[in-house]
Write a structure and sequence with these properties.
single chain, Ubiquitin-like (UB roll), 3-stranded mixed sheet, 30 strands
């Protein structure tokens, strides 16, 4: 076989001679290059000298023969090599080295790193980031550590990275901004420790709480700035608002105030009102904010034609239209329209239309500045309760919740009964506040599923108190009560009170549904001891001692949904004694000492001895409160009559009355009388 021989000792076989000649010709034609002395073996029958091509290879020093890691302490060299794309046998180039450096930097595991090539032996030198020993907060007084630490993602024994520190600084600053302190700064510092460990110290400068210095409103013509500021939750900082928290800047409150402005204008007839912009600017000293609203009031509208279009057979359109709260010519009020939709929805819900849709259609006349409103009651089937589900109760038994439902499975849906059910379950006090009965579509269009998704709350109470009085010295009190005993809705409690001159103890038990019937029953057992003393004597000598022991039983039945009758029976034994050495004397000379009215007084002399009281009572109660624990509306009226004389030595007749009324007023406040 014939071969071509290059000057460098390399040989080229005849099989690649033509391809090599073409490639060599292309290279020679593209750029001038020096020719090497060659030896060629002429093929038979050829008169011309053949020139062998030049083959260039990478320098031996650019081929990676080995890769080693220097400086690794915690990380294994193989782990570090897995982060880069350099491999043995590949060509070492500056581009490949730059890529490897970027790969190492992306890990954020090293504070310093470099790569060098020693004749094909690539050496990677790294300095590992330190390990965090502890995290320290300094300068935080308004926000305690338990509020800030959960926002910090760094933790001891983690590897220190600058990006994580910057992220934690941003989170701490954001936490202070939510508290209204926009001037707060956080300076992270790193304290070097032996064994490549560090302490991270966040030096916090809290700064003052950023207040709202001024609220500017541009574009308002019908209402003054003061009137509009009064509608906002955010208030301007003044010396008179020292105790108000609404003077601090809050971005969420800023968005809420825009909504409040829109609501106010819509209730005044300005249907085209809009807030063009709301800008909060931080003052140069970073202490306060200046808020500027730019508004467009638009034209003021009146109600035009107002009517009800009913597609339900039980509701007459003309009759309902005549009973609407708004009339043509009244100033347009969007809040009144919303309230009307809610009232109509509740009304048709009482007739069993759970999914009836009340849609107000608006027609605006910009020339006459009127707003026509047509309330459309869309067709819907009567709905029946398919199922009642109680979910989320782990301790409370299902029957405790189900017996509060004023509607049963199979009954026609009634929104008023569902609302009353919600109020009764909230009054139990066993579950989350603002509990609502959810309404879910059933298996068919005329079926509905009522869901009571409850979240149980602690119902046990333990109270311990102590005090000191110059009259009775130390006063101690303790009580324990469970309002949902064993998840049955029962209430059981005990209380003890002790002082130098009085002692008492009481046990109580209440069963709201006796034998699973709508009959309540309860029993109280008590013991009371009282020692009176002379208040005008420094020695405080005792004047009389009284002890009472007894019990009270009670039972109640409902008369209506809101009215109930409660009967009670109380039996007690009272014993009153006086010190015979102080208050007794021989008045008639018969050698027998009796109570001296001149020493003890006629009242105490008549009270000495034992007496029993047998009392029967009856109470008629009316309760329409929306919650027995935290009422916001409704009334509670009770009339109690007690008669003592069914046995016993005490006889009297007593009548007591009690009434309370609750009204919700502005700002979420409740007024009671």
């Amino acid at each position: 076989m014939k071969t071509f021989t290059q000057a460098g000792g390399k040989t080229v076989r005849p099989a690649g001679r033509i391809a090599a000649a073409l490639l060599s010709g292309t290279i020679l034609a593209g750029a001038p290059m020096p020719l090497l002395a060659q030896e060629a073996v002429q093929p038979e029958g050829s008169d011309q000298e053949q020139i062998a091509p030049v083959v260039q290879e990478a320098p031996v020093d650019n081929i990676i023969r080995s890769i080693s890691v220097v400086g690794a302490v915690r990380l294994e060299p193989s782990t570090i090599l897995s982060y880069i794309r350099l491999r043995v046998g590949e060509e070492y180039t500056s581009v490949a080295a730059d890529g490897a450096l970027k790969d190492l930097g992306a890990t954020e595991l090293f504070s310093n790193f470099s790569i060098r090539n020693d004749g094909g032996n690539v050496v990677i030198t790294v300095t590992e980031n330190p390990v965090i020993n502890r995290i320290v907060l300094e300068g935080n007084r308004r926000l305690k550590n338990d509020k800030i630490v959960p926002e910090i993602r760094l933790s001891p024994r983690q590897i220190f990275t600058r990006s994580k520190v910057r992220a934690d600084v941003a989170r701490i600053i954001e936490l202070y901004k939510r508290q209204g302190r926009f001037a707060a700064t956080v300076e992270p510092k790193m304290i070097q420790l032996p064994q490549n460990r560090v302490d991270i110290v966040f030096e916090i400068t809290e700064g003052p709480k950023s207040k709202v210095r001024q609220i500017n409103i541009i574009g308002n013509e019908e209402f003054s700035d003061g009137k509009l500021r009064g509608e906002m939750v955010t208030k301007q900082a003044r010396w008179t608002s020292f105790f108000s928290s609404n003077t601090s800047y809050d971005p969420d409150r800023l968005a809420f105030d825009q909504q409040k402005l829109r609501q106010f204008y819509l209730t005044e007839g300005f249907a085209d009102f809009r807030v063009v912009s709301a800008v909060a600017e931080l003052t140069p000293d970073k202490r306060d904010f200046i808020i500027t609203y730019v508004v467009e009031e638009g034209e003021r509208y009146k109600f035009g034609n107002v009517a009800v279009e009913s597609q339900l057979r039980d509701f007459d359109s003309e009759f309902m239209s005549s009973n609407l709260p708004m009339q043509a010519g009244d100033w347009y009020n969007a809040k009144l329209v919303e309230d009307t939709v809610e009232q109509i929805s509740e009304l048709i819900g009482t007739f069993g239309y759970a999914f009836a849709d009340v849609q107000p259609n608006f027609s605006r006349n910009r020339e006459e500045l009127t707003m026509d409103v047509n309330f459309v009651l869309r067709q819907a089937p009567r709905v029946y309760v398919e199922r009642i589900d109680v979910n989320g109760n782990t301790l409370t038994q299902d029957k405790v919740v189900r017996r509060e439902f004023r509607i049963s499975e199979g009954d026609a849906f009634n929104s008023l009964q569902v609302k009353r059910t919600t109020a009764r379950i909230n009054s139990l006090g066993y579950f989350q506040e603002n509990f609502e009965v959810n309404q879910v579509e059933g298996s068919q269009p005329d079926r509905i599923v009522l869901e009571a998704n409850v979240e149980e709350q602690p119902t046990g109470e333990l109270q311990l108190s102590a005090g000191f009085s110059s009259l009775e010295s130390f006063i101690l009190s303790a009580s324990i009560r469970q309002r949902n005993f064993r998840g049955r809705g029962q209430t059981i409690g005990a209380s003890v009170n002790y002082s130098r001159y009085s002692r008492s103890a009481q046990l109580s038990f209440t069963e709201p549904y006796l034998f699973d019937r709508n009959i309540s029953a309860g029993l109280d057992v008590f013991r009371r001891d009282f020692n009176s003393f002379n208040r005008f004597n420094r020695d405080r000598n005792r004047t009389f001692e009284q002890d009472s022991t007894g019990f009270t039983g009670r039972a109640g039945v409902p008369l209506t949904e809101y009215m109930s009758l409660i009967g009670s029976y109380t039996f007690s034994r009272d014993n009153v004694t006086l010190d015979p050495n102080v208050f007794f004397s021989d008045l008639d000379g018969d050698g027998i000492s009796t109570c001296d009215p001149l020493r003890a007084g006629r009242f105490l002399c008549d009270a000495i001895g034992s007496r029993t009281s047998s009392i029967i009572g009856a109470t008629v109660a009316y309760n329409s409160l929306d919650s027995r624990l935290r009422p916001t509306r409704g009334r509670n009226i009770s009339l109690t009559t007690e008669f003592a004389g069914v046995g016993g030595s005490v006889k009297y007749l007593r009548v007591r009355g009690r009434a309370a009324q609750y009204w919700p007023v502005f700002g979420g406040f409740i007024f009671s009388l």
